[in-house]
UniProtKB/TrEMBL annotation:
Keywords: Aminotransferase, Pyridoxal phosphate, Transferase. This is Unannotated protein. The keyword Transcription regulation does not apply. Belongs to the class-I pyridoxal-phosphate-dependent aminotransferase family. It holds the Pfam family Aminotran_1_2. Its cofactor is pyridoxal 5'-phosphate. GO terms for molecular function: pyridoxal phosphate binding; transaminase activity. The keyword Cell inner membrane does not apply. Residues 33-392 form the Aminotransferase class I/classII large domain.
């Protein structure tokens, strides 16, 4: 008897970050005082001017109908202008495909260029969705791990050691989810030149491009290495920058033939993105970055706070990230020690203990690569950071 669920879909793992967030919310709904550091989304409301654009759009009958699969022409043009403004990367509107959130852009990028058996180099720690999209496309994930001593940044030498004649692409994410690490312009150039020399595609996730601290910059790889333009796909969206995770608007930028092929796929998959959301996205990417900078100031304050508090916990080692809104401490110094009679040997076991004993939710390193780490999102209030990390410190230093 054949299985009820296809082998392809059965092999896909649930999103660990969403699972942790769902568990924390379920416990909160039961009245438990859970503090969640799991979800990767800003805790701010979408700026008012964007919401008002959506309200106005909802009243326009044309927005109640189907529109072109690759996106509203006005939004594609706005993304062209925004890309020139923010990255100094010159593209045309037929190089843009608007997608239902960044995740669809990730999936379609791999589905469009990866064939069965192609290898994709995936710097680790990595966002939990990447390997699942590679798998769905028939590709093989080759993890390249950089630990906290490298600030979680892989080197060209590591990439070259992992390269084979089956290597088709590399996924490049800076600023990084889950670590918050940011590659320097020199590192971006070196990786880009290596990819170009070896005829390897670059899929560059730039979703956190505006969340930078301490003078860090996140240059777009094809700007620094112009020769890559024909073998580079850029992924982006409004979710993180404008606090619009629920609006579901992302996009792909790439060579025209790749965008045309991905558009064909999307025409059968989801058709166009919600027109109301697209109209909101036009307001977002066309407006100034004042609201973005205000959110960035709050994230910067929280970043410093959570790093200081985590490094006060015995056994935790937390590098200071310079991007995104995550910290990624090593917790290897805690593993193997007794915590209220329980002895965690993995970061997954430690995360369970933290949730059960002090009602703090963090995502274990196993979701992003090797065990021994926890990801905390500081897209939450200062008070929750102080209370939540304080609970962990109290637990690990009692008795």
């Amino acid at each position: 008897m054949s299985p009820r669920i296809s082998t392809r879909i059965a092999a896909i793992a649930e999103s660990a970050t969403l699972a942790v967030d769902a568990k924390a919310k379920a416990l909160k709904a039961q009245g438990r005082p859970v503090i969640g550091f799991g979800a990767g989304e800003p805790d701010f409301p979408t700026p008012d001017y964007i919401v008002e654009a959506a309200v106005a759009a909802a009243r326009v009958v044309a927005n109640h109908r189907y529109t072109p699969t690759p996106g509203l022409p006005e939004l594609r043009d706005a993304i062209v202008a925004k890309t020139k403004r923010d990255s100094n990367y010159e593209i045309t509107s037929d190089q843009v495909l608007v997608t239902n959130g960044g995740k669809q852009a990730v999936y379609q990028a791999f589905a469009t260029i990866i064939d069965e058996g192609d290898e994709v180099l995936l710097p680790s720690p990595f966002w939990t969705t990447y390997p699942e999209c590679i798998k769905l496309a028939g590709g093989i994930t080759v993890e390249v791990f950089a630990d906290e001593t490298q600030n979680y940044l892989v080197t060209v030498e590591q990439l070259e050691a992992a390269r084979t004649d089956k290597t088709k692409a590399i996924l490049f994410c800076s600023p990084s989810n889950p670590t918050g690490s940011v590659y320097s312009p020199e590192q971006v150039k070196a990786i880009g030149e290596w990819a170009l020399k070896n005829n390897i595609w670059v899929i560059a996730d730039e979703i956190y491009e505006h969340l930078l601290y301490d003078g860090a910059t996140a240059p777009s790889m094809p700007v620094i290495v112009p020769g890559l333009a024909d073998t580079c796909i850029i992924l982006n969206g409004v979710a993180k920058t404008y606090a619009m995770t629920g609006w579901r608007v992302g996009w792909m930028i790439g060579p025209k033939d790749v965008i045309k092929a991905a558009t064909n796929l999307q025409s059968h998959l989801t058709s166009n993105v919600s027109n109301v959301s697209q109209r909101a996205a036009i307001a977002a990417v066309s407006g100034d970055l004042q609201a973005v900078h205000a959110m960035g100031q709050a994230f910067n304050r929280r970043r410093k706070l959570i790093v200081d508090l985590l490094n006060e916990i015995p056994g935790f080692v937390c590098p200071t990230p310079t991007g995104a809104f995550y910290v990624y401490p090593s917790v290897k110094g805690v593993l193997g020690t007794s915590i209220r009679g329980k002895v965690p040997t993995t970061s997954a076991e430690l995360a369970t203990i933290l949730l059960e004993e002090v009602e703090v939710a963090a995502v274990p390193g196993e979701a992003f690569g090797p065990s021994g780490y926890l990801r905390f999102s500081y897209a939450t209030s200062d008070a929750d950071i102080v209370e939540g990390i304080g609970r962990i410190k109290k637990l690990l230093t009692e008795g």
